[in-house]
Amino acid sequence: MTNKEEIQEIINNARLGQESAFKKLLNTYWSDVYRFQFSKTNNENEAEDITIKTFAKAFDKIDLYSDNYNFKTWIISISKNIFIDSIRGTKNETLSINKENSEAYHISDDAPSPEDKIIIDQNLAELLGHIKKLKPKQQEIINLRFFQELSYKEIAVKMNEPMSSVKVNLLRAKKLLSDIIHKAK
Q: For residue 96, what are the CA distances in angstroms to 7, 88, 91, 105, 107?
């Protein structure tokens, strides 16, 4: 296990942009954050997605981390907030009432409306244009994860890379893509 001074040095190196420091933080805290999320979601894919979002946000905001707090506590707090945001997501609900026995059922409607489909198609075309601005390896990892919906393990096998590299490369590709999208607006 890594002691507090070593963690602080890794955090300082991450603040300087050293990729190896981000990988060490990811490897050190991945299972803690994943376990926390899995206990909340009881769904492997959702726990994995929220965990990767947690690290993406933490790495983006690493300069805001205060050395007065335990890094694990800080990253779990970020993860908790992302989880809360995910359950607050907007879902259309329909109330179905069974007249025979006066029971009510909430039926969630996740299907996009016709207007949503048009917006999605337009946004998808725009998004694909932005993705093409990334380096080929970044395009590939985005494609594998979000369009082919492969797990991190499947991506690691397909790209012949360690899973920690896949996670860090995906974080970076998402960050660069986000920057490209924001600059285009």
A: 53, 22, 16, 5, 7
